Amino acid sequence: MSDLKNKVALVTGSSRGIGAEIAREFARHGAKVVVHGRDTAAMAKVLADIERMGGQAIQVAADITSLAEIERMRGEVEQWLGPIDILVANAGGSPARPAPLEQITEDDWRASIDGNLTATFLTIKSVLPGMKERGSGVVITMSSAAARRAHPGSPMGYAAAKAGVELLTKELAAQAGPYGIRANCIAPEIILTEVNQGSIPPATQEALVEAHPLRRLGTSEDVARAALFLACDDSAWITGVVVDVAGGAVLV
Ligand SMILES: NC(=O)c1ccc[n+]([C@@H]2O[C@H](COP(=O)([O-])OP(=O)(O)OC[C@H]3O[C@@H](n4cnc5c(N)ncnc54)[C@H](OP(=O)(O)O)[C@@H]3O)[C@@H](O)[C@H]2O)c1
Fold first, then answer.
1. What pLDDT, on a 0 to 100 scale, did the predictor assign at position 90?
2. What is the gyration radius of the CA atoms in the chain, in angstroms?
3. Which among 92, 196, 209, 230 would be 20 to 30 A from 20, CA to CA?
4. What pLDDT was estimated at residue 178?
């Protein structure tokens, strides 16, 4: 069960946070993992974690808003580990703080779309032809609870970009299914990553718990377990869905 033995998995944005935990979880289940990000020291720490547990991984840096850099990364991965079986297009985040629409700058809007929707599109664009040729593959994308329902305090550009990621994933599932490729999306509510632990004051964390029927905040491990299920054959008949990893905070 949950076997990823010898599968090559590229987890973008795995130098920290949710992506790092997905990389460790996949390695624990036998995958050869590509740890990716821009911060080489942070990537090296995740790589060391994986090697300590007896797993196999490499680290590759690339800015995923550039197709040329993604293509270079894919070349390196194919050279060192072989073709990519599993893509987790996780890298992203909100570059801008929530603000009323008229106060959002053009630069912040474009950065939100580039760093989430366009980056996800470019990463899939690079990896998909090989998967089609081989007649198999798994793609997992990362949305957010911000895209699941409107909220006056939401970072609007980021939420819109993530809603785009969800539809992109469904379109991909429809187009690539006949080639043996599955595509699914995960939409987490606030996750207590290292960054969020440090930046969300304890009182706010307590208040946020109340918005979750399961009465706690989510962890990177919660998301990694969902990603593992979607990556392995346990979910062989599931494609084109958005999985809310949200403790019931989002009920759609
Ligand atoms: N944490 C949450 O509460 C939460 C909730 C909902 C959705 N999400 C989504 O889940 C994903 C992971 O979130 P997180 O909180 O774990 O993020 P994080 O801790 O801020 O880490 C972001 C990761 O993405 C990489 N990254 C971002 N932009 C990149 C770019 N242009 N090129 C290359 N790498 C890039 C970062 O690399 P470097 O740092 O090495 O540069 C890092 O590895 C994101 O898509 C986020 O939108 C998170």
1. 99
2. 17
3. 209
4. 98
pLDDT of residue 252: 84
pTM over 0.85: yes
Nearest CA owner, ligand 1 atom 1? 191
Looking at ligand 1, which atom is closest to the CA of residue 43? 40
Which residues touch 22 (CB under 8 Å, ≥6 apart)?
Answer: 11, 14, 88, 90, 220, 223, 224, 227, 228
- Residue 137: its H or E element: strand 137-142
> What positions carry a catalytic annotation?
158
124 is written with which tokens?
A: 């899939």
Sign of CA dihedral 130, 131, 136, 137: positive
Q: Give the C-alpha separation, 116 to 159, whole Å.
A: 10
Q: Whose CA is nearest to atom 17 of ligand 1?
A: 17
Question: Which atom of ligand 1 lies nearest, measured to the CA of 162?
Answer: 47
Q: How far apart are CA 86 and CA 3, in angstroms?
A: 13
Tell me which fold the domain 8-191+219-245 belongs to.
Rossmann fold (3.40.50)
How far apart are alpha carbons 230 and 218 in whole angstroms? 18
